[in-house]
């Protein structure tokens, strides 16, 4: 990577390394060697070989700070963040590399870097994020230097005295200098006159206005202000002390002393020091328990976020589809991105966890559930009816998608069409598609446009294959053959994941979910069940009893319609069977409202 495109995380560096070596001396030892063959050669001329290990870099949203280091807050008291950039904590090494790259100009220099995907587990790491100009420059000074020895920014670097005169002349020609920046493809930070200007407070406020995310409470702000005041006073005392000590003979300051001072300061800071907030959407689980993958708003990357426990635990357990606010923080010394809060959910899809009376929340903020069926494996109407009841009880729209129509013989097609016509007549949307052959996929695509939907259904019906087909080559979910003997799926998909489908129109998000063996209703009582069979609703008003269960009661309009063939026998039988299983407690748990306020286990 080009050293110029990496920013400093600290505002100041010491002129010596921890092992006592002079930074300037190490800079001299950096050699420029020819780039190894390959793509690197197309972008760079030389590779910098340094006497120290490669620097580690991290993509980070910097806090905007005043000149005195105070963080900028918006009108809600929320920290204002700058654009994400590559930062390093290895500030002294970055300074050496940038200086060496300047020395080698006009050859384009590359340095080997290690990319960090999370903040290092170090107590000092959070403290090091103290740059006040988004990491464009760094002061070179010891702690007590009243005037810094130098301020380094590669954009305004003095051409080194030992540099060749021809290079020096070229460097001074600003047009060439802009050309240098352009050559690295980052004019925004490279060109002399387009140095990143920090947005004004008003600009930041305007930019952040209306953004989602919980601001700190009044108590939080008051606590921060108290902490700031304390720090300012302690700094003032230190400065006074430094002036009185300046008369004394200066002793050689060891790195250890400085590190100890820094550690002491860090310890004084709150254990929970946040570096900024962002909002995002949970797109899946992470590899480790207690983590989720969050796609941060306006970013293309998914970030691993911890789900804190105890006092910091979010009120709801984050699940796929949730909008969350995350905070980049250091909890008890471990720096990490943490889910701070699950934003209010628009909807959820919940089922009863098999074999337990507990609920399982499948996903959140859904607009549509696609119930995927096939003839291989064959579907059961009982399962379809349960999904339809559950979705209706939870206020969710459902569409039925019969996949694998390419496998159907003409007679099978007639049979399955008549089975599904029952649902169409009730008012459900039914689509016959083939993920492999592409039949009717355009209609399905239109149905998904501008919404968040989930694919649910038995294992092997082709949910992941449908997702891949809709992904037009950009999504590659694992699919598995169904078993020859049993004609059942092999439970290939094991966790739910949210994907954005390609397309120019309104964004469509689709969640692929693991195949279910069975779907059990949750949160519907036997007495309520009749209200979720849509074809019963207009008839129920004509029943003699207003609380008619459409079973043995006299003058029941539903039973009359059943006798006359106006409602399907299969649907009615399904109603009776589900009702029985609800009465026996085999499925369904109606919890009192106060218990529903807490999130069921997910
Ligand atoms: N002929 C045909 N086969 C299909 C179609 N869609 C999916 N399949 C096949 O069905 C098998 C199962 O597909 P998957 O996408 O893995 O099924 P799934 O529903 O995701 O299964 P789980 O992940 O186990 O829940 C694979 O062999 C697919 O290639 C289709 O439209 N036509
Ligand atoms: Mg699958």
UniProtKB/TrEMBL annotation:
Listed GO MF terms: GTP binding; GTPase activity
SUPFAM superfamilies: P-loop containing nucleoside triphosphate hydrolases
Record-annotated EngC GTPase domain positions: 364-517
Keyword Nucleotide-binding assigned: yes
Ranges of biased composition (kind: Acidic residues): 249-273
Swiss-Prot/TrEMBL keywords: GTP-binding, Nucleotide-binding
Residue ranges of domain CP-type G in the record: 352-519
CDD domains in UniProt: YjeQ_EngC
Pfam families found in the cross-reference section: RsgA_GTPase
Positions of region (Disordered): 192-218, 230-275
HAMAP family noted in UniProt: GTPase_RsgA
Name recorded for this polypeptide: RsgA protein
